[in-house]
Specification:
The complex is a heterodimer. Chain A is an all-alpha fold. Chain A contains eight helices and no strands. Chain B has three helices and two strands; from the N terminus they run H-H-E-E-H. The chains are: A mainly alpha, B mainly alpha.
Protein backbone atom coordinates (compact mmCIF):
# COMPACT_ATOMS: atom_id res chain seq x y z
CA UNK A 1 0.00 0.00 0.00
CA UNK A 2 1.06 3.61 -0.43
CA UNK A 3 1.91 5.92 2.41
CA UNK A 4 0.83 9.52 2.20
CA UNK A 5 2.61 11.40 -0.55
CA UNK A 6 4.65 14.15 1.07
CA UNK A 7 6.95 14.58 -1.92
CA UNK A 8 9.89 13.45 0.20
CA UNK A 9 11.30 10.62 -1.86
CA UNK A 10 11.97 10.03 -5.53
CA UNK A 11 8.93 7.87 -6.02
CA UNK A 12 6.61 10.50 -4.58
CA UNK A 13 8.18 13.15 -6.79
CA UNK A 14 7.57 10.92 -9.80
CA UNK A 15 3.95 10.43 -8.77
CA UNK A 16 3.47 14.19 -8.36
CA UNK A 17 4.97 14.79 -11.79
CA UNK A 18 2.69 12.22 -13.37
CA UNK A 19 -0.35 13.70 -11.60
CA UNK A 20 0.52 17.21 -12.78
CA UNK A 21 1.00 15.90 -16.34
CA UNK A 22 -2.31 14.06 -16.15
CA UNK A 23 -4.22 17.08 -14.78
CA UNK A 24 -2.99 19.24 -17.67
CA UNK A 25 -3.97 16.61 -20.24
CA UNK A 26 -7.39 16.12 -18.63
CA UNK A 27 -8.13 19.86 -18.63
CA UNK A 28 -7.17 20.14 -22.30
CA UNK A 29 -9.46 17.23 -23.15
CA UNK A 30 -12.25 18.91 -21.19
CA UNK A 31 -11.84 22.26 -22.97
CA UNK A 32 -11.77 20.51 -26.37
CA UNK A 33 -14.87 18.50 -25.48
CA UNK A 34 -16.79 21.61 -24.37
CA UNK A 35 -15.85 23.51 -27.53
CA UNK A 36 -16.94 20.60 -29.71
CA UNK A 37 -20.22 20.35 -27.79
CA UNK A 38 -20.90 24.06 -28.07
CA UNK A 39 -20.27 23.95 -31.82
CA UNK A 40 -22.64 20.97 -32.26
CA UNK A 41 -25.37 22.92 -30.45
CA UNK A 42 -25.58 25.42 -33.29
CA UNK A 43 -25.76 22.89 -36.09
CA UNK A 44 -29.12 22.31 -37.70
CA UNK A 45 -29.94 18.59 -37.82
CA UNK A 46 -30.04 17.20 -41.36
CA UNK A 47 -33.42 15.51 -40.90
CA UNK A 48 -34.87 18.86 -39.83
CA UNK A 49 -33.81 20.34 -43.15
CA UNK A 50 -35.29 17.38 -45.06
CA UNK A 51 -38.59 17.68 -43.22
CA UNK A 52 -38.90 21.31 -44.17
CA UNK A 53 -37.74 20.84 -47.75
CA UNK A 54 -34.88 23.22 -47.18
CA UNK A 55 -37.23 26.02 -46.15
CA UNK A 56 -36.81 27.29 -42.64
CA UNK A 57 -38.99 29.65 -40.74
CA UNK A 58 -36.98 32.72 -39.79
CA UNK A 59 -37.80 32.52 -36.09
CA UNK A 60 -36.63 28.89 -36.00
CA UNK A 61 -33.43 29.84 -37.71
CA UNK A 62 -32.86 32.66 -35.27
CA UNK A 63 -33.12 30.47 -32.18
CA UNK A 64 -30.45 28.19 -33.63
CA UNK A 65 -28.00 31.01 -34.10
CA UNK A 66 -25.36 31.85 -31.51
CA UNK A 67 -26.74 34.41 -29.04
CA UNK A 68 -24.54 37.15 -30.46
CA UNK A 69 -26.43 36.98 -33.80
CA UNK A 70 -29.73 37.39 -31.97
CA UNK A 71 -28.79 40.70 -30.36
CA UNK A 72 -30.66 43.65 -31.77
CA UNK A 73 -28.25 46.41 -30.86
CA UNK A 74 -26.10 46.56 -33.99
CA UNK A 75 -23.55 48.82 -32.42
CA UNK A 76 -23.01 46.41 -29.57
CA UNK A 77 -22.76 43.43 -31.92
CA UNK A 78 -20.23 45.24 -34.07
CA UNK A 79 -18.03 45.98 -31.07
CA UNK A 80 -18.44 42.50 -29.56
CA UNK A 81 -17.35 40.86 -32.82
CA UNK A 82 -13.97 42.55 -32.60
CA UNK A 83 -13.31 41.01 -29.18
CA UNK A 84 -11.87 37.65 -28.27
CA UNK A 85 -14.53 34.96 -28.81
CA UNK A 86 -14.01 33.39 -25.40
CA UNK A 87 -14.43 36.71 -23.57
CA UNK A 88 -17.59 37.48 -25.53
CA UNK A 89 -18.94 34.05 -24.60
CA UNK A 90 -18.31 34.79 -20.92
CA UNK A 91 -19.96 38.20 -21.25
CA UNK A 92 -23.06 36.75 -22.94
CA UNK A 93 -23.39 33.86 -20.50
CA UNK A 94 -23.17 36.28 -17.61
CA UNK A 95 -25.43 39.06 -18.89
CA UNK A 96 -27.99 37.19 -20.98
CA UNK A 97 -27.68 33.67 -19.59
CA UNK A 98 -27.65 35.07 -16.04
CA UNK A 99 -25.08 32.47 -15.03
CA UNK A 100 -22.70 32.75 -12.11
CA UNK A 101 -18.93 32.96 -12.56
CA UNK A 102 -18.61 29.51 -11.01
CA UNK A 103 -21.01 27.98 -13.57
CA UNK A 104 -19.28 29.69 -16.49
CA UNK A 105 -15.84 28.67 -15.25
CA UNK A 106 -17.04 25.09 -14.91
CA UNK A 107 -18.54 24.93 -18.41
CA UNK A 108 -15.55 26.51 -20.09
CA UNK A 109 -12.88 24.68 -18.15
CA UNK A 110 -11.38 27.94 -16.89
CA UNK A 111 -10.64 29.11 -13.38
CA UNK A 112 -13.04 31.33 -11.46
CA UNK A 113 -10.53 34.18 -11.35
CA UNK A 114 -9.81 34.03 -15.04
CA UNK A 115 -13.55 34.18 -15.92
CA UNK A 116 -14.13 37.06 -13.52
CA UNK A 117 -11.14 38.98 -14.82
CA UNK A 118 -12.15 38.53 -18.48
CA UNK A 119 -15.74 39.60 -17.71
CA UNK A 120 -14.76 42.82 -15.97
CA UNK A 121 -12.15 43.59 -18.59
CA UNK A 122 -14.64 43.27 -21.45
CA UNK A 123 -17.23 45.26 -19.48
CA UNK A 124 -14.77 48.09 -19.00
CA UNK A 125 -13.78 48.04 -22.68
CA UNK A 126 -17.42 47.97 -23.79
CA UNK A 127 -18.38 50.93 -21.62
CA UNK A 128 -15.49 52.89 -23.03
CA UNK A 129 -16.29 52.00 -26.65
CA UNK A 130 -20.03 52.59 -26.34
CA UNK A 131 -19.35 55.91 -24.69
CA UNK A 132 -16.98 56.88 -27.47
CA UNK A 133 -19.52 55.82 -30.14
CA UNK A 134 -22.29 57.83 -28.50
CA UNK A 135 -20.23 60.98 -28.77
CA UNK A 136 -20.13 60.58 -32.56
CA UNK A 137 -23.89 60.89 -32.87
CA UNK B 1 5.18 -6.77 -1.56
CA UNK B 2 6.47 -3.23 -1.80
CA UNK B 3 5.03 -1.49 -4.83
CA UNK B 4 6.47 1.78 -5.97
CA UNK B 5 4.70 4.20 -8.26
CA UNK B 6 7.40 3.79 -10.88
CA UNK B 7 6.86 0.06 -10.79
CA UNK B 8 3.10 0.51 -11.04
CA UNK B 9 3.45 2.79 -14.07
CA UNK B 10 5.83 0.37 -15.80
CA UNK B 11 3.45 -2.52 -15.25
CA UNK B 12 0.46 -0.48 -16.46
CA UNK B 13 2.42 0.43 -19.59
CA UNK B 14 2.88 -3.24 -20.44
CA UNK B 15 -0.85 -3.78 -19.97
CA UNK B 16 -0.85 -5.56 -16.60
CA UNK B 17 -4.59 -5.46 -15.70
CA UNK B 18 -3.91 -5.35 -11.95
CA UNK B 19 -1.67 -2.30 -12.30
CA UNK B 20 -4.15 -0.59 -14.62
CA UNK B 21 -6.96 -1.19 -12.12
CA UNK B 22 -4.81 0.15 -9.30
CA UNK B 23 -4.06 3.31 -11.28
CA UNK B 24 -7.74 3.70 -12.18
CA UNK B 25 -8.72 3.43 -8.50
CA UNK B 26 -6.06 5.97 -7.63
CA UNK B 27 -7.16 8.58 -10.19
CA UNK B 28 -10.91 7.91 -10.27
CA UNK B 29 -11.82 10.85 -7.97
CA UNK B 30 -9.75 13.26 -10.10
CA UNK B 31 -11.22 11.99 -13.37
CA UNK B 32 -14.77 12.16 -12.01
CA UNK B 33 -14.33 15.68 -10.69
CA UNK B 34 -12.96 16.83 -14.07
CA UNK B 35 -15.87 15.12 -15.86
CA UNK B 36 -18.39 17.43 -14.20
CA UNK B 37 -20.05 20.14 -16.29
CA UNK B 38 -22.44 22.38 -14.38
CA UNK B 39 -22.13 20.09 -11.37
CA UNK B 40 -23.15 16.95 -13.24
CA UNK B 41 -20.99 14.20 -14.68
CA UNK B 42 -21.00 14.28 -18.49
CA UNK B 43 -20.66 10.64 -19.53
CA UNK B 44 -19.16 11.38 -22.94
CA UNK B 45 -16.53 13.56 -21.33
CA UNK B 46 -15.90 10.92 -18.64
CA UNK B 47 -15.07 8.37 -21.34
CA UNK B 48 -12.77 10.81 -23.13
CA UNK B 49 -10.98 11.55 -19.84
CA UNK B 50 -10.39 7.86 -19.16
CA UNK B 51 -8.98 7.50 -22.68
CA UNK B 52 -6.73 10.51 -22.00
CA UNK B 53 -5.48 8.90 -18.80
CA UNK B 54 -4.55 5.67 -20.61
CA UNK B 55 -2.76 7.68 -23.27
CA UNK B 56 -0.86 9.56 -20.57
CA UNK B 57 0.26 6.31 -18.95
CA UNK B 58 1.63 5.15 -22.31
CA UNK B 59 3.33 8.43 -23.17
CA UNK B 60 4.69 9.59 -19.80
CA UNK B 61 8.40 9.00 -19.43
CA UNK B 62 10.78 9.78 -16.64
Amino acid sequence: MYKNNDGSDEDHILQNQFTAYLVTALRRTKVKHIRKKRYRQYEVPLDYLNEHDGLMILSDLLTKLPVIEQLENEKLVKILKTYNEQSVHIFIEKVIGDKSFVEIADTMGLSYNSVQMRYYRILKKLRKELDKNDKHF
Amino acid sequence: MTSTFRNLLERAKTGDPLAVTQLMDMYEPLIKSEAKINGEIDNDLLQELWATMFRCVQVFEK
